[in-house]
Amino acid sequence: MYNNKANIRNIKKGSWTDEEDNLLRKCIDKYGEGSWHRVPQRAGLSRCRKSCRLRWLNYLKPNIKRGQFSEDEVDLIIRLHKLLGNRWSLIAGRIPGRTANDVKNYWNTHLHKKLSRPKHNPRIVRPQPCTLPKASSLVMDKLDPLSVGESNVLDNGPIEEDGDEDDDDANAIPRWWEKLVQVTEDGIVGVEQLNGNRDGLGSQKPNSHDGLNMWPTSNIEMSRSPITHVEQHNIWEDNLWNFDVNVWE
DNA sequence: AATTAGAACAACCGCCGGCAA
DNA sequence: CTTGCCGGCGGTTGTTCTAAT
């Protein structure tokens, strides 16, 4: 086992050689994917299970596409990242031939810098905890305090301080969802399938009884959940509602 | 030609959730 | 219910390549 100290010491690291690749390939051909803990022994490799798995998934697996990302792929990555955040495996799952590592690397080296560079220095106002005066109509109307101060933002997206935003942004959410739905209809991506099985999105999203449960509703529900300020901040940082870069045109 | 900085890619690490014992 | 193992994920680091000086 890999927790054996002697074995740990013998575990090889660093770049894979052609010989190692061949051994791994033969092993997977013979036994199939899975049971990664057995792969090093079966293949006769001095690598840990994770290293073998990674090498197979990111490099040796058939149908892996190499080379430059096409415009369509880049567009899809941007859209999916907007929707899913750094869920590279989910994003990669919608881009045939690309691995999560590829997508992640491409994002970090190409898109992250490009998209984070503001065009006209927009200032996004993110929701902050606030105390309303008792006389506030919102309080007087006995609205759910958890929804106060967030509802506007969640319904319409972030408010830009420069104030010259028209109604387009208010419609932005349905529009880009519509685009994704179109993709769904093409059989590339399904909203249901996009629900991750890990923490965060998957667990935060409500049941999609009708198959297409759009975000505005689900986020209103999110706002009522016991979510911390830090978590909220992260959600905002994950670009779910960050429209400072319009990638849909 | 040599050096250096930045980009691009490959691999590692730590953590998490699922699951079986 | 707890514990340990496994597969999987995202963040980070290391290495190689390439263009600029």
Structural overview:
InterPro entries: Homeodomain-like_sf (IPR009057), Myb_dom (IPR017930), Myb_TF_plants (IPR015495), SANT/Myb (IPR001005). This is Transcription factor MYB1. Its main location: nucleus. With 249 residues, the chain is mostly helical. The protein has 3 domains: 5-60, Arc Repressor Mutant, subunit A (Orthogonal Bundle), CATH 1.10.10; 71-116, Homeodomain-like (Arc Repressor Mutant, subunit A, Orthogonal Bundle); 124-237, no CATH class. The protein has helices at residues 5-10, 18-31, 39-43, 49-60, 71-84, 88-93, 100-116, 137-140, 151-156, 172-185, 191-194, 201-204, 215-224, 229-237, and strands at residues 124-125, 159-160. The protein has a two-stranded antiparallel sheet. The longest helix has 17 residues, at 100-116. It is elongated. The N and C termini lie far apart (53 Å). Mean pLDDT is 58; it is low at 1-8 and 119-249. It binds a DNA duplex (21 and 21 nucleotides) through helix 4 and helix 7.
Features of the shown structure:
single chain, 249 residues, mainly alpha, Arc Repressor Mutant, subunit A, two-stranded antiparallel sheet, 50% helix, elongated, disordered N terminus, DNA-binding
Task: Map the helices and strands.
Elements: H1 5-10, H2 18-31, H3 39-43, H4 49-60, H5 71-84, H6 88-93, H7 100-116, E1 124-125, H8 137-140, H9 151-156, E2 159-160, H10 172-185, H11 191-194, H12 201-204, H13 215-224, H14 229-237
Antiparallel strand pairs: 1-2
This protein binds a DNA duplex (21 and 21 nucleotides) through helix 4 and helix 7.
